[in-house]
């Protein structure tokens, strides 16, 4: 039986909390969009936005460095897509404080995810592996 490992990085704690906070803000904004009959945009935004949190959570339970990087990369891809939808909504339809807050949060999340990906793809890996029984 192959031992499991738990990736830990300083940024890992940040991304878990920030992705959770973003999920809450996104749900609040999603409800706002639904109330304003922006169904197409709201569904796409919710899908890509919730995928970020899902992939971050799955990265915590990764069984290998490769799987960890893969999940973080997927979260980054979803974060970029989410930012695209938020910016589209901002430009075309709605100006709201909750949308502005989501854009600020997603930019910070993208930066953290990029840092995690880059720091784990370097030759000197900054990933601590703790073998669990």
Topology:
Elements: E1 4-8, H1 10-35, H2 39-60, H3 65-92, H4 97-121, E2 128-132
Antiparallel strand pairs: 1-2
Helix pairs in contact: 1-2, 1-4, 2-3, 3-4
Which residue ranges are poorly predicted, with pLDDT under 50 across at least 5 consecutive positions? 1-6, 123-133
CATH class descriptor name:
Mainly Alpha
Task: State the share of residues found in helices, binned by percent.
Answer: over 70%
State the major sheet. 2 strands, antiparallel
Give the end-to-end Cα distance, rounded to a whole number of Å. 10 Å
Give the helix/strand class: mainly alpha
Percent of residues in beta strands?
Answer: 5-15%
The number of helical runs is 4
Q: Outline, from the CA principal axes?
A: elongated
The CATH topology label is de novo design (two linked rop proteins)
Determine Rg (CA atoms, Å). 16 Å
Under CATH, the homologous superfamily reads 23S rRNA-intervening sequence
């Amino acid at each position: 039986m192959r031992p499991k490992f738990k990736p830990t990085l300083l940024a890992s704690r940040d991304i878990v909390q920030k992705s959770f906070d973003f999920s809450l803000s996104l749900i609040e904004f999603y409800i706002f969009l639904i109330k304003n009959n922006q169904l197409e945009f709201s569904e796409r935004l919710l899908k890509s936005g919730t995928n970020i949190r899902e992939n971050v959570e799955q990265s915590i339970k990764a069984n290998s460095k490769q799987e960890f990087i893969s999940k973080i990369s997927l979260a980054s891809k979803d974060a970029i897509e989410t930012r695209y939808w938020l910016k589209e909504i901002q430009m075309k339809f709605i100006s709201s404080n909750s949308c502005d807050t989501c854009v600020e949060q997603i930019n910070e999340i993208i930066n953290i995810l990029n840092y995690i990906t880059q720091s784990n793809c370097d030759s000197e890996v900054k990933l601590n592996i703790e073998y669990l029984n």
